[in-house]
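Work Package 4 report. The design task specified in the project plan requires that, given a folded chain encoded as structure tokens, an amino acid be chosen for each position. We show below one input record used in the internal validation round.
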């Protein structure tokens, strides 16, 4: 029987309350055991610090004695280096021992006896060194031979041994206590985890009964969200490209249309200047001088035709630019019709259309494509392929026979890639993006053209939902890669919703 929402909530509240109580018990026990473990750990650290400070003090006493004996035997002050270093480090190390012994709660009487023995030993060393430094070497050596220093050193070693033994014993006890606390903490955590796991398993079983239908609904929503995210990403990329193209288009159009307009304005001013000698001639009438007559003849015979010719040339260029812009604009408004296209056949048809030009300048066009079909606009595909093949033939290299290869393949994503590769004169790396801009051309301007073709091609390909890129090297050939969706209808539905 399906579980109701009230039953689901009641069951989960009971399980949640039980789990909360178990968790509270675990937290309290874990806190108490953790504090005990921390105390044991602090004791371990204090005992180890006591042992370390004790060993350091013993080493300093031995270094000081070594420096004294070396100095007395060699009478060379350089041998006092261990003694002076030991004296400099003695007080900080002794204070470290006192602090750690207090933290470890060791018998302070042992520490006090050790301190007295150390200070007595250091005083004996200082006395003999002072005698030697005053030049009383025999008396200094006699003081050493009396044996008081050896007796004090024995007391020092005995004190060190007692403190280290006591520290070691307490250290082992602290380590054992820490291990016990850690073991109890582990068992508490394990048992608590088992209890919570049981509650979690019961809750999971209840939730699974209730959420089977919700999971199915979420799966459907997730699939819809993924599709929506893809469409949003595609539209964002398309809008970004469109914005970039609009900015480039605005710059190019204003720049290229302004150039002939500036020429027209300039030669219009020249026409105004040319009218001056003609007006002067007519105003003078029969009284015109030969110089005025000559200036008027020059203006009519040379200046006026030249200015009119340049104005006509500039207006013709503006007309060509405007017609090119209108052509691309009309292409963007044309209604695309998605239909099944046999790509190998389409490539063969495009190659056959330029077969004569290709074989006249080289060994023709090779088509390499497995059986492949897409749904797209046939006229647009034909225009793109025709334009790319025309460019391959137009910009062939004079150094070798033309050879063009057309390929088609399907990517893992399902999209289709069409490549048009030639061995022509190539395109400089700096012009790979520039060639797709309106009215822009690359390389030597020795072939007729307005810089419209590839801009038109990219507009068509992007209208089909795809994109076009180029890879090329100068004097090594060019490869255009066209990426197209497998179904134009799906792209149109995506952009319309």
């Amino acid at each position: 029987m399906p579980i109701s929402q009230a039953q689901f909530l009641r069951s989960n509240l009971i399980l949640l309350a039980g789990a909360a109580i178990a968790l509270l018990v675990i937290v309290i026990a874990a806190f108490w055991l953790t504090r005990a473990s921390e105390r044991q750990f602090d004791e371990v650290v204090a005992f180890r610090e006591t042992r370390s400070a004790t060993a350091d003090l013993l080493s300093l006493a031995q270094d000081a004695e070594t420096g004294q004996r070396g100095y007395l035997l060699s009478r060379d002050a350089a041998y006092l280096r261990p003694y002076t270093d030991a004296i400099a480090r003695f007080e900080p190390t002794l204070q470290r021992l006192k602090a750690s012994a207090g933290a470890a709660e060791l018998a302070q009487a042992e520490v006090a006896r050790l301190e007295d023995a150390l200070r007595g030993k250091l005083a004996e060393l200082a006395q003999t060194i002072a005698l030697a430094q005053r030049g009383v070497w025999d008396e200094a050596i006699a003081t050493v031979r009396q044996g008081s220093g050896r007796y004090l050193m024995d007391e020092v070693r005995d004190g060190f041994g007692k403190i280290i033994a006591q520290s070691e014993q307490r250290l082992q006890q602290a380590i054992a206590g820490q291990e016990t606390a850690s073991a109890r903490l582990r068992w508490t955590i394990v048992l608590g985890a088992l209890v919570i796991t049981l509650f979690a398993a019961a809750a999971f079983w209840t939730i699974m009964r209730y959420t089977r239908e919700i999971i199915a609904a979420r799966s459907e929503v997730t699939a819809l969200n993924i599709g929506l995210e893809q469409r949003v990403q595609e539209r964002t990329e398309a809008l970004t490209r469109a914005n970039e193209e609009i900015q480039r288009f605005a710059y190019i159009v204003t720049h290229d249309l302004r150039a002939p307009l500036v020429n027209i304005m300039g030669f219009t001013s020249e026409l105004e200047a040319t009218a001056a000698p003609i007006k002067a001639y007519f105003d003078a009438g029969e009284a015109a001088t030969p110089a005025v007559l000559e200036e008027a003849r020059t203006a009519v015979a040379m200046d006026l035709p030249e200015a009119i010719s340049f104005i006509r040339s500039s207006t013709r260029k503006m007309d060509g630019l405007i017609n090119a812009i209108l052509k691309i604009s009309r292409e963007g408004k044309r209604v695309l019709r998605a239909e099944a296209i046999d790509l190998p056949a389409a490539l063969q048809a495009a190659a056959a259309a330029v077969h004569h030009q290709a074989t006249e300048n080289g060994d023709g066009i090779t088509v390499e494509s497995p059986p492949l079909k897409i749904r797209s606009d046939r006229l647009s595909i034909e225009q793109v392929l025709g334009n790319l093949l025309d460019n391959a033939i137009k910009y062939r290299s004079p150094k070798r026979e033309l050879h063009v290869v057309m390929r088609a393949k399907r990517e893992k994503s399902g999209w289709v890639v069409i490549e048009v590769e030639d061995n022509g004169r190539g395109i400089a790396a700096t012009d790979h993006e520039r060639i797709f801009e309106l009215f822009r051309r690359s390389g030597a301007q020795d072939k007729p053209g307005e810089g419209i073709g590839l801009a038109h091609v990219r507009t068509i390909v992007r209208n089909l939902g795809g994109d076009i890129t180029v890879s090329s090297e100068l004097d090594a050939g060019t490869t255009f890669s066209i990426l197209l969706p497998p179904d134009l209808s799906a792209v149109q539905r995506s952009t319309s919703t």
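The mean pLDDT is 74. Validation will be extended to a larger panel in the next phase.
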